[in-house]
């Protein structure tokens, strides 16, 4: 298994400000796959990504990436891991303004043990033509390409991308995401992507994890998730997205209610106040994760999943 996360918990703040950003997260992911994390704002997606990238540490639980235990590595091992094994692409590209495109990438290559050849990086991203330009001379989409190049330069096993296109023009978003997907497949590099774009999810993902209130509430191969969502949040999410067949006058089904504050969750299932099917034990006890479906490849955190 490439990434294995067991009983991951992370809280921020205390007393009235306490937030369970990760509340017993368990997942395992295969190598070289595109894995997308969906979920409402504040559900713990970035926290999970940061933990996998070694940018922050869990309160309890373990994260293993390619056999390395990230959750209890010493400082030196963690620095090496962040430098060599994972690449990060964030919403904002943070290039160094006084350096050219090529120099921005070289800064990263120079401190890596086995970096990709710089020409190969420039070619993979189709940015050789910008090599002597400075970031301010480039558009947002072009700058994000350079940021992807920088993430790729150390030749990582895993790319972590946190809403990498949210700040970009909508016409460029698809290009950058397609590029990430292509790089992942061509290089056998895992890609863990946070996005709100369900079209992108359907097109690019191998697997999807849906988060709600600090938990993975559903995990499934992408086709199964869209064809037959099992968790009522996933179900609502997919029904609330427009498709090409949606007439302009159609009223989409929004999920009723609002996302609970992670610091003030209701008793029982965190989704219960918004769930049309909630009853009985949903009000009393948070559901546990169960494998559902005949294939057993999907997991759902819902008391009623079996009945669906
Ligand atoms: P998402 O990426 O799904 O929007 P986050 O992982 O950013 O969610 O946040 C999950 C919860 O943890 C939110 O309530 C957020 O306010 C809280 N949180 C995240 N990082 C911090 C932090 N460094 N300090 C305090 N609270 C945090």
Please give a structural write-up.
With 308 residues, the protein is an alpha/beta fold. The protein is built from 9 helices and 12 strands. The protein has helices at 45-52, 75-84, 101-109, 118-124, 140-152, 170-187, 198-204, 222-227, 232-239; strands spanning 3-12, 19-29, 34-38, 60-65, 68-69, 86-89, 158-162, 190-194, 207-212, 215-221, 290-292, 298-300. An 8-stranded mixed sheet has the order 6-7-8-3-9-10-12-11, sandwiched between helices. It has a 4-stranded antiparallel sheet with strand order 2-1-4-5, covered by helices on one side. Strand 11 and strand 12 (298-300) form a beta hairpin. Helix 5 packs parallel to helix 6. It is globular, with a radius of gyration of 20 Å. The model has no long low-confidence stretch (mean pLDDT 90). It binds adenosine-5'-diphosphate. Adenosine-5'-diphosphate binds next to strand 2 and helix 1.
List the defining traits of the structure above.
binds adenosine-5'-diphosphate, 308 residues, four-stranded antiparallel beta sheet
- Report strand order across the widest sheet: 6-7-8-3-9-10-12-11
Low-confidence segments, given as residue ranges, are none
Shape: globular
Rg from alpha-carbon coordinates? 20 Å
Small-molecule components bound? adenosine-5'-diphosphate
N to C succession of SSEs: EEEHEEHEHHHEHEHEEHHEE
Individual helix count: 9
Based on secondary structure, the structural category is alpha/beta
For the secondary structure, the number of strands is 12
* CA-CA gap between termini: 29 Å
Which whole number gives the mean pLDDT? 90
User: Proportion of β residues?
Assistant: 15-25%
Described by strand count, sense and barrel closure, the largest sheet is:
8 strands, mixed
**Helix content class:** 25-40%
């Amino acid at each position: 298994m490439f990434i294995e996360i067991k009983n991951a918990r992370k809280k921020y703040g205390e007393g009235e400000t306490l937030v369970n950003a990760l509340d017993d997260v368990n997942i395992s992911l295969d190598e070289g796959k595109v894995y997308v994390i969906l979920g409402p704002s504040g559900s713990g997606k970035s926290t999970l990504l940061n933990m996998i990238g070694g940018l922050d540490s869990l309160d309890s639980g373990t994260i293993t990436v390619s056999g390395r235990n990230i959750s209890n590595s010493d400082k030196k091992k963690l620095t090496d891991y962040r430098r060599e094994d994972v690449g990060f692409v964030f919403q904002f590209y943070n290039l160094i303004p006084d350096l050219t495109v090529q120099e921005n990438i070289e800064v990263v290559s120079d401190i890596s043990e086995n970096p990709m050849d710089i020409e190969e990086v420039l070619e993979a991203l189709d940015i050789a033509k910008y090599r002597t330009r400075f970031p301010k001379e480039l558009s947002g989409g072009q700058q994000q390409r350079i940021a992807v190049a920088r993430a790729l330069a150390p030749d990582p096993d895993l790319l972590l991308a946190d809403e990498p296109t949210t700040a970009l023009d909508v016409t460029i978003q698809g290009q950058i995401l397609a590029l990430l997907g292509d790089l992942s497949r061509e290089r056998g590099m895992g890609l863990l992507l946070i996005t709100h774009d369900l079209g992108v999810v359907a097109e690019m993902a191998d697997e999807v994890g849906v988060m709600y209130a600090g938990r993975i509430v559903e995990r499934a191969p992408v086709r199964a998730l869209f064809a037959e969502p099992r968790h009522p949040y996933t179900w609502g999410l997919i029904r609330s997205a427009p498709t090409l067949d949606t007439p302009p006058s159609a009223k989409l089904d929004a999920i009723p209610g609002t996302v609970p504050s992670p610091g003030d969750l209701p008793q029982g299932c965190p989704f219960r106040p918004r769930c049309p099917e909630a009853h009985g034990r949903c009000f009393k006890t948070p559901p546990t994760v169960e494998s559902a479906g005949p294939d057993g490849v999907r997991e759902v955190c819902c008391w009623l999943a079996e009945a669906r």
